[in-house]
Amino acid sequence: MQLPPLSLYIHIPWCVQKCPYCDFNSHALKGEVPHQEYVDHLLADLEADLPLTSGREISSLFIGGGTPSLLSAEAMQALLDGVRARVKVADNAEITMEANPGTVEVDRFSGYLRAGVNRISIGVQSFSSEKLTRLGRIHGPDEAKRAAHLAAGLGLRSFNLDLMHGLPDQSLAEALDDLRQAIALDPPHLSWYQLTIEPNTLFSSRPPKLPDDDALWDIFEQGHQLLSDAGYQQYETSAYAKPGYQCQHNLNYWRFGDYLGIGCGAHGKLSFDDGRILRTSKTKHPRGYMQGKYRDKSHQVAADDRPFEFFMNRFRLLEAAPRAEFTRYTGLDESVIRAPLELALANGYLLESEQYWQVTEKGKLFLNSLLELFLADE
Length: 378
Known about the structure:
Radius of gyration: 21 Å
Strand order of the largest sheet: 9-10-8-7-6-5-4-1-11
Low-confidence stretches: none
Strand content: 15-25%
Number of helices: 15
Structural class: alpha/beta
Helix content: 25-40%
Number of strands: 17
Shape: globular
Largest sheet: 9 strands, mixed
């Protein structure tokens, strides 16, 4: 089994307030962010996990949350300096940080850039004041545009705008207007995804009225055309980029690469020379985490579960999947998945060549049915 590329994910758990649709591990801030104390724990967590990296270098780094832009520029500098002192980070590594428009400040962002951040992902979600209020967002449309202009002028490698559609009572015209305003800001990357109601969220206990399936399809179809006409290429279910600006960190996830996860609730997936694949998860609550209880759970991925896990990630991407990577990254021979592959081909979900598998248009529409073919028998 060949070891795949290794990424690093760092979780910053605090937000100014919790959004009603959010099921990420985030906690409303009470008082001040414990900047340096949390950074010290992150670096101790990283040190404890270093034996899992097999001495590999980090090819990409992603700082998510929560709201990472609540962390001071000084703390970000200490964090990234500390990471680089403990593990080799590739010279050309993509280093992304998520940011909310309401916490974007010129001085602080210049500091993030000096610390090594070269890509910023801005959580815009909508350019409608009314919709932002419904979503519990603390910023307005003008702040979102200001943040995008700031990101464009910083000399970053790239920046992303996060935009949602299928919002409560959202019309087709409103959804497309949001998208046109995002495109006008000319981000190299756009994440354009549908709002879904997740369990254990405020929206789950009090569901808003969302557009029906026909309306959602119209929004997607016309929005996709708008993005294509503006020079964006869809490369994943909800990700669009100008040529050459795909998010390298997320590509590594979806290609079944490895990633180390540090910080509250962070998940990791690590492969080893002896064929093991280990999944890890960290303590979710900042209180427990900052008592030094970093690792919450870990388990080895059984051979029977690897085909489903591999394809669940791989088939999110629109690119063809190299057949050789299945054996390279799972350690399994292709013969173990021949039967479900034949079913997928017969159902018109996949095309197969000597080198690749390609999900068809039908396969994209029935992705869950395609993936279920690779589930291990109970």
